[in-house]
Amino acid sequence: MGKLIKSGGAGSVYLLPGAPAQVAKLYHPHLDRAANRRKLEAMLELTPELPDQLENGKRYVQIAWPQAAVFDGQDGFAGFVMPLLDMAQTAELEQIMQERQARAAGLPTGLGPKLTLAANLAAVIDALHQQQHYVVDLKPVNLRFYRDSLYIAMLDCDGFSIQGHAERFPAEQFTADYLAPEFQRKGMPAGTEMAQDRFALAVVIFQLLNFGIHPYSGRPGNAQVATDIPGRIRDGCYAYGIKRHKQLAPNATSGHALMPPELRAMFDRAFSQSPKPQRPSAADWAQLLRGYAQRSGGKLVVCTANPEHQHFAGLGCAACARDKVIGAAAQASVLAQQQMLAQSQPRQRSARGAHHTAPGQAPVRLPAGGAQANAVGISGKGWAVVVLLIVLFLIGFTAWTSSSDEVNKKASLQAQADQAAGLEVFRWRSRKAAGFQQSDARKAVHSLSQAISKGDDDAVTRGLQLLYRSGEGKSSGYEGDKVRARLRTTLMEGLGAMPFYAPELAKTYLDQLQADPRDHLAAAAMGRMHLSLNEPQAARQYFEQAVWAHPTDGVSWLGIAATALMRGGDEQDAVNLVALAQLTAYRYAVENAMPTEPGEPADNGVAATAKRMDRAAKVLRMVQAGSYEKRWDKALADGALLASKLKALPPLPDQPASVLRETMTTVDYGVLDEKQAAGENRLTLSIAADGSLTYAAAEKPMEPQLNKVIQDSVKRWTYLPAVKHGQLQDAKAEVLVRYRNGRASFVPAEARVSVED
Q1: pLDDT given at position 414
Q2: 687: confidence class by pLDDT, cuts 50, 70, 90
Q3: H or E stretch including 724?
Q4: Average pLDDT score, the chain
Q5: Which of 90, 205, 586, 692 would be a feasible disulfide site paired with 144, CB 3.0-4.6 Å?
Q6: Of 223-227, 410-414, 471-475, which range is least confident?
Q7: Beta partners for 727?
Q8: Half-sphere exposure (Cβ direction) of 662: Cα atoms closer than 13 Å
Q9: Which tens digits make up the pLDDT trace of 164-209?
């Protein structure tokens, strides 16, 4: 392997010295290699038809698709080889959408380049779809293009939804602002990735061709319109259709009214509210846009007023119209500020002349009527007329651009209410967590030390339970043989081997951590080495990795305590961490128990644990000279006293899962249907042992607007997990929802008695 150029959640990317046009991506060792290998084999078998493009002697890689598998020295699957993309020659698609941002990045701003990009993007997506692969998380910030040729450059392809042999490897990520309306409420089930890609592609193309404006943005006509983009997508609030939306007006700077009818019809198909929308495919978009992007077609012309602008043949220039709207708004703002300044200045001068005249200076006399005059000679009423005319101009322009086919503005409010008041059952599920990360361990250690300082015993007990549980079944693979594990531990923690820095030994340990990030002994050894180099910050990171890998190992906690003394001289933090180390070692002493010979007394691990902790404390005492040694001895003594108090803490009292009552505040919502203005419902909440809400569902259907309010509420509540026999448990809780005349309140519901209880 050559130089490391990128590291992410799935793996690390390296240069290949013998193949300058390729790179290798190696998956992190803790991932499921068998599944990744099957996924790679599917990608190699169903490679999209996207060959490199040659133009003016340059090669442009359109997609970083895997080309071959990578194996380690033991023939174990490790990753794959893919083509090297010249990142310096590419830019994010997001950068070209806004004119100011595009100019700052040295990118083109005209409609022509954006049409070319849109056509190229549609062609790339079509090639993927032909092999039944889908991007899913398709959005401008995830897309790149070459600055000079405008070819698309696709990265991170192993994160796509990939079709294998009778198996689909799903994409884990999506973005709500680009999620199709049918998936906004209940998520995206398997087999619907094509519909999602078609919707997201249409959104990106709309933004490319319309100054970065999202198709579901605009000015709401009433309070019932959702304020967020996902809510408007869910409710079908597309404001730029040929038929104008009743509740949402388009953005005043939009250029959609100056698009050709066939292009607007395609967008209407993409954003239709029909139950089964026939959205255009990527191939449909590629075919249509290519005709406009090609210069020979004559469908795009240069603007006569501004040669930097292009517009569709036979239609006005949307960029010029947009500039006029922005200019008029800016001028109105300046004039209004000038009017306010002109009206305030005479009064200020008059006040200064009467009371604050400088010594030896005569007061300034204003002419009659000066209080009403302004800097440019227009009266206050005149300014009011000017501002009114500008506002009327903006309103008129918006109405002109919104639609060529005006709908009947006198549609009854009841008809709108009937359309929006379709009842639905509330169901919400949190996104799957990424698992317990090293950063989570760092936060947990910090929170536990703070809880001890505050005297919050329950928080200490809960925090330790959750941290210990995170390491269950995830320890390093070498611990299968207890005798070998003890021998390895003794060798790596011996007084003769540590804590001095040995470069070759450090490389060995780093290789071990690369192969197995949960090798807590190697991580702790690296921490002690960095302590000897007086690098407490780096040392703490390694000790925290050791705690993440093996939370029940007290030796790693001791290492963090040592870094607390050196890093900032925090004596109390060091004492707290020593106490946590002693408490952890005491509770999990059995981990150090060894098999005994026949006739010998059973070893419960307590003596071995005490010996190991004492040896670790002596090693950590050696890492620095001077006053550190005395401070370390004091931290050990004070920590031992504190640990005895922590050992005597009572267990958590048994309690059912619940919601903290103070957080369930009454909320307002817009009543859409008089028949549904009052009622009661019951929510069932699934609360995890860590106090997070994983699922919420209602018994009966309610108005969508009320469901949205409830969803926003349950995300804000504070949850108390269940405790049984002193242990945190996953459990359910129930809450009653009572609503009347636009206000909803929440109270805990009495638990239903089951047969088991």
Answers
A1: 41
A2: very high
A3: strand 722-724
A4: 82
A5: 90
A6: 410-414
A7: 724
A8: 0
A9: 877 889 988 889 999 999 999 888 888 889 999 999 999 999 999 9
pLDDT, tens digit, 9 for 90 and up, residues 452-467? 999 999 889 999 999 8
Query: Residue 729 in contact with residue 722, Cβ under 8 Å?
Result: yes
**CB within 8 Å of 172: residues ≥ 6 apart:** 159
Answer for the pair 529, 502: CB distance below 8 angstroms, yes or no: yes
Cross-strand bridge partners of residue 659: 719
- The pTM assigned to this predicted structure is 0.50
- Closest alpha carbon to 706 in 428, 430, 431, 424: 424
Q: What is the pLDDT of residue 216?
A: 95
* Neighbouring C-beta atoms of residue 300, cutoff 10 Å: 18
Q: What percentage of the chain reaches a pLDDT higher than 90?
A: 40
Whether 452 and 460 have beta carbons less than 8 Å apart is answered as yes
Which three-class secondary structure state does DSSP give residue 73?
Answer: coil
Which of 399, 414, 16, 393 lies closest to 239 in space, CA to CA?
399
Distance from chain centroid for Cα 398: 35
The pLDDT value recorded for residue 601 is 65
**Beta carbons within 10 angstroms of residue 392's beta carbon:** 10
**CB of 448 within 8 A of CB of 579?**
no
CB atoms within 10 A of CB 483: 9
**pLDDT: which is higher, 413 or 480:** 480
Report the amino acid identity of residue 477.
G
- Choose among 348, 347, 338, 349: nearest CA to 380: 338
Task: Say if residues 233 and 179 touch (Cβ distance below 8 Å).
Answer: yes
Would you state the structure tokens that stand for residue 540, as one six-digit string?
A: 């703490």
Distance from C-alpha of 15 to C-alpha of 184, rounded to nearest angstrom: 40
Query: What are the distances in angstroms from CA 741 to CA 203, 227, 706?
Result: 37, 21, 11
- For 389, 430, 664, 744, the CA distances from 697, given in Å and listed in that order, are 52, 12, 16, 16
Burial label for 430, CB within 10 Å (0-12, 13-18, 19+), is: middle
Q: What is the DSSP string of 377-417?
A: S--HHHHHHHHHHHHHHHHHHHHHHH-SB---TT--HHHHH
Decide: helix, strand or coil at residue 420: helix
Residue with tokens 């009947």: 408
What are the backbone dihedrals phi and psi of residue 611, each rounded to the nearest 5 degrees, phi first? -65, -40
Rounded mean pLDDT, 554-576: 86
Two structure tokens written together for 500: 């001095």
- Tell me the residue length of the chain: 757
Candidates 324, 320, 8; CA nearest to 156 is 8
Q: Mean pLDDT, to the nearest integer, of 379-401?
A: 54
One-letter identity of residue 487: L
Backbone angles phi, psi at 153, to 5 degrees: -125, 105
Q: Which two tokens stand for residue 632?
A: 């370390």
Three-state secondary structure of 481-498:
CHHHHHHHHHHHHCCCCC
Separation CA 651–CA 727 (nearest Å): 8
Q: What is the pLDDT confidence band of residue 491, given thresholds at 50, 70 and 90?
A: confident
